[in-house]
TrEMBL record, chain A:
GO cellular component: plasma membrane
Domain Cytochrome c assembly protein as annotated: residue spans: 18-188
This protein's name: Heme exporter protein C
Free-text function comment from the UniProt entry: Required for the export of heme to the periplasm for the biogenesis of c-type cytochromes.
Membrane-crossing residue ranges in chain numbering: 25-48, 60-88, 100-120, 126-146, 158-177, 205-226
PANTHER family linked: CYTOCHROME B_B6 PROTEIN-RELATED, HEME EXPORTER PROTEIN C
UniProt topology in membrane: Multi-pass membrane protein
Family named by the database record: Belongs to the CcmC/CycZ/HelC family.
Superkingdom assignment: Bacteria
UniProtKB/TrEMBL annotation, chain B:
Native organism taxonomy: Bacteria, Pseudomonadati, Pseudomonadota, Gammaproteobacteria, Oceanospirillales
Any one GO cellular component localisation term in the record: plasma membrane
Organism listed in the record: Marinospirillum celere
A single MF term (Gene Ontology): heme transmembrane transporter activity
Protein name, as recorded: Heme exporter protein B
Top-level taxon: Bacteria
Bilayer-spanning residue ranges: 43-61, 67-88, 123-145, 151-174, 181-206, 218-241
From TrEMBL, chain C:
UniProt keyword terms in alphabetical order: ATP-binding, Cytochrome c-type biogenesis, Membrane, Nucleotide-binding, Translocase, Transport
Designated name of the protein: Heme exporter protein A
GO MF terms held by the record: ATP binding; ATP hydrolysis activity; transmembrane transporter activity
A Pfam short name: ABC_tran
Domain ABC transporter: 11-221
TrEMBL record, chain D:
One GO term (biological process): heme transport
Function: Required for the export of heme to the periplasm for the biogenesis of c-type cytochromes.
Compartment(s): Cell inner membrane
Name used for this protein in its record: Heme exporter protein D
Length: 249, 244, 223, 72
């Protein structure tokens, strides 16, 4: 198993191999995303029971929670890619990190937006300085920072390393920020209830949530592979195999 | 044999005698002190900015005590945050542009302590005056006396973390021509914990409670920043040099 | 494929290649440098002379190949190598807020300090007598470069990487500088330099021509 | 199904506006995250192919002029 992972790692480091193998993965990710998201949506919207307190607006959870989850895990993935780039100098790691950033930012935005919409029936206001939403907002700024830094720096290798370092520094700080925001929230606004804080969810509620989460991950794979493949072509334009591929049509 | 007037000729050689890291650190402190003291404008501007932002608030909200006093901790901290950020923006860029940063990379000594020396002097010359200025601005915002001491102590601990974390952003953006906004975007999210615990300490003091919990958390943040940030700063500076 | 260099070589390069902005500057570069050698990098503009210098100083990562410091891969001993290295690049590395003397004091402090008179003497030899206590802001770019070159007069570091060291000097200055380099080499030091000047006085100058990448690297020794 | 009728389903217990707008916007953003990279991939490929063609043409031209130079 370990050996297999090691060879996979080394192969993924080669742009050519990455391009070819991800080409064959694409339909699988696409299929999984469509199936999981389809099943999850229908189940969550039509079959899962409504919440006894919030009623049917609770169904927004099926977008909000997976989006918030992905927003955080994509940032961690970016930091891991950053470590791989800085320590093992694997250039493909940067292609992946660059492709992750826009998807992560979208997920963060989505979590914020669905949180705001959810807030209207629940709190009676579009925005509330709820601990989870505030952390999400800060995470959104962190994503914007990484994207802006890449735009600002030249040449590309320098931008790659700088973004990797920023993502690593960010990942060390995220728990601190989260903890401090939670603390601040309990200090200032105790006893309002949090959107997704549930005592115990019945299986008919959390199974579709899990399916949606899997669907989001498949979507992540699909979207990131699409972006990474275009980036590989751009960066490896001079390589023989890219020219061959382009001539083949 | 007569040499031309400007003839280069090596001086008498002494045996090689490499100084220890601490001696180099001390020399770096002295050099930074001289350099930064001579750039007075860069030191005064953030202080003026700090005072000005604080003065604008009563004009924008209300001059009455019952409105100003509750928001005073927040206003003071936000202004201090922005002033620190502003003072850090040009910390490393001149060094990158005149080549002294690449010289620091080839001294044969680790870069982190050299960057720390620079940052230490910068803290002494910009954050410390800011802390000393803060009680006067606190009085103007009707900050209760009990909170003044806590504010200075909180600023003392918090500004260490602010300087160190901000310097990471300054290192990353050293190669960017005009980086003011970019630097703000990169660094401000990381300032949030300091802001929360800093204002928390002051509010605890105002409400008559103990600010110890907040202060010790600020201290922990400062300690964490001192141990981790220098390495990130050094890595950021190396990246900046490789881009020139 | 690449054989590790023999120990007495101070700096060795094996199959070194450099890419900048997706352009291959040079590749397959091999050379060994021994104590007492003067090496000049030649080639038209944009061929990667400065990049090679920055690569050897450790500012840039190599796209391929290795650098050895005294027979060891340099990745493991950058600090040791830097302790023996004196680098002067396009940028002088002189602080404008400090006086020439203060600037030199710092560089001397990195090597254990130097007497004030010696530093003053070094400044006067590069033609900066009378400027000791003026902030470098008031000096011209050429004068700042000469402050940097004054370091060569008192340094104990053995490997000199000099990128266009002659640009700020007049004819006499160039001659004196050449004399200095020969003196350093005779004392067992090593110099790598790039220059547009025809270096007539330098005896035993070894040249490496960085040319079109496909053509490989040509080397010639001028005695 | 949790709901009694289709209209009940669309009504979402009075929260239709919030639930459906949240899901619609989410779906739109997800689709954008697939379509935009896909278009970008296509555009990149086309652009690189064009660049390749241009370079090949340039090379052919330069070799022709070289030959002419030799003839003269």
């Amino acid at each position: 198993m370990w050996k297999w992972l090691k060879t996979l790692y080394h192969r993924l480091g080669s742009p050519k191999w990455f391009y070819q193998i991800t080409g064959s993965w694409l339909p699988w990710f696409a299929g999984a995303a469509v199936v999981f998201l389809g099943v999850g949506l229908v189940w969550g919207l039509a079959f899962a029971p409504a919440d006894y307190q919030q009623g049917n607006s609770f169904r927004i959870i099926y977008i909000h929670v997976p989006a918030a989850f992905l927003a955080q895990s994509v940032y961690i993935m970016m930091a891991v890619a950053g470590v791989v780039l800085l320590v093992w100098k694997m250039k493909m790691a940067d292609v992946v990190a660059q492709s992750l950033a826009p998807f992560g930012a979208t997920m963060t935005f989505l979590a914020l937006l669905t949180g705001a919409i959810w807030g209207v029936p629940t709190w009676g206001t579009w925005w509330m300085w709820d601990a989870r939403l505030t952390s999400m907002l800060i995470l959104f700024f962190l994503y914007l920072g990484v994207i802006a830094l890449r735009e600002a720096l030249q040449p590309q290798e320098v931008a790659a390393k700088a973004c990797a370092l920023l993502a690593i520094v960010g990942v060390i700080n995220i728990p601190i920020i989260k903890y401090s925001v939670d603390w601040w929230y309990t200090l200032h606004q105790p006893a309002t209830f949090t959107l997704t804080e549930k005592p115990a969810m019945p299986a008919s509620m959390w199974v579709p949530l899990l399916i949606m989460l899997l669907g989001f991950y498949a979507l992540l794979g699909w979207s990131v592979i699409l972006r990474a493949r275009a980036e590989v072509l751009k960066r490896e334009y001079k390589a023989g195999w890219v020219k061959e591929l382009l001539q083949r049509k | 044999m007569n040499k031309p007037a400007a003839a280069f000729c090596r001086l008498k050689q002494k045996p090689a005698n490499l100084p220890g890291l601490f001696a180099v650190f001390k020399a770096a402190l002295g050099r930074e002190w001289r350099m930064q003291v001579r750039r007075r404008g860069d030191l005064v501007n953030p202080l003026v900015f700090f005072a000005l932002v604080v003065v604008l608030f009563p004009l924008g909200i209300s001059p009455t005590e019952d409105i100003l006093a509750p928001v005073a901790p927040g206003v003071l901290w936000v202004a201090a945050l922005l002033a620190t950020l502003m003072s850090l923006d040009a910390l490393f860029r001149p060094d990158l542009l005149d080549g002294s940063l690449e010289q620091q990379l080839v001294t044969g000594y680790p870069l982190a302590p050299l960057a720390l020396a620079k940052l230490g002097v910068h803290w002494l010359l910009s954050s410390l005056p800011l802390i000393l200025l803060s009680p006067f601005l606190g009085i103007m915002l009707y900050l209760p006396w009990e909170a003044q001491g806590v504010m200075m102590l909180a600023l003392l601990l918090g500004s260490l973390a602010l300087s160190l974390v901000g310097a990471i952003g300054a290192a990353l953006t050293a190669g960017v021509g005009k980086s003011g906004v970019l630097m703000t975007l990169l660094v401000l999210p990381f300032y949030i914990p300091v802001l929360i615990f800093g204002t928390g300490a002051m509010q605890a003091a105002i409400s008559g409670g103990s600010a110890m919990a907040h202060l010790s958390l600020l201290g922990a943040l400062a300690a964490l920043a001192i141990t981790l940030a220098p390495w990130a700063i050094a890595a950021g500076l190396k990246i900046a040099v490789s881009g020139e | 494929m690449s054989i590790a260099p023999s120990p007495p070589s101070i700096l060795s390069v094996r199959q070194l290649s450099c890419e900048r902005d997706e352009r291959l500057l040079f590749s397959g570069l091999d050379f060994d440098l021994y104590p007492g050698e003067l090496l000049q990098l030649e080639g038209p503009n944009g061929v990667g002379k400065t990049s090679l210098m920055r690569l050897l100083a450790g500012f840039l990562p190599a796209s391929g190949g290795r650098i050895y410091w005294q027979g060891k891969p340099v990745e493991g001993c950058w600090e040791e190598m830097h302790q023996a290295l004196l680098f002067i690049g396009h940028l002088a590395g002189i602080k404008a807020e400090l006086t020439p003397l203060e600037n030199l004091h710092w560089f001397a402090a990195l090597e254990g300090g130097q007497e004030e008179e010696d530093l003053e003497e070094a400044l006067s030899r590069v033609g900066l007598a009378g400027f000791e206590d003026q902030p470098c802001q008031q000096l011209s770019a050429g004068q700042k470069r000469r402050v940097a070159l004054a370091r060569l007069l008192f340094t104990r570091r053995s490997l000199w990487l000099l990128d266009e060291p002659f640009t700020a000097l007049d004819k006499q200055g160039v001659a004196a500088m050449e004399h200095l380099l020969v003196e350093h080499a005779q004392a067992g030091g090593t110099v790598i330099l790039t220059s547009h000047h025809a270096l007539e006085q330098l005896t035993g100058l070894r040249k490496i021509h960085l040319g079109a990448p496909q053509a490989g690297v040509k080397e010639a020794i001028h005695e | 199904m949790y709901f009694d009728s289709l209209s009940d389903f669309f009504n979402m217990g009075g929260h239709a506006l919030y639930v459906w707008s949240a899901f619609a916007i989410s779906l739109l953003l997800m689709l954008l995250n697939i379509i935009l990279p896909w278009w970008n991939f296509k555009a990149t490929r086309l652009q690189l192919q064009r660049q390749l063609r241009r370079e090949a043409k340039q090379q052919a031209n330069s070799s022709i002029t070289e030959q002419q130079g030799e003839q003269v």
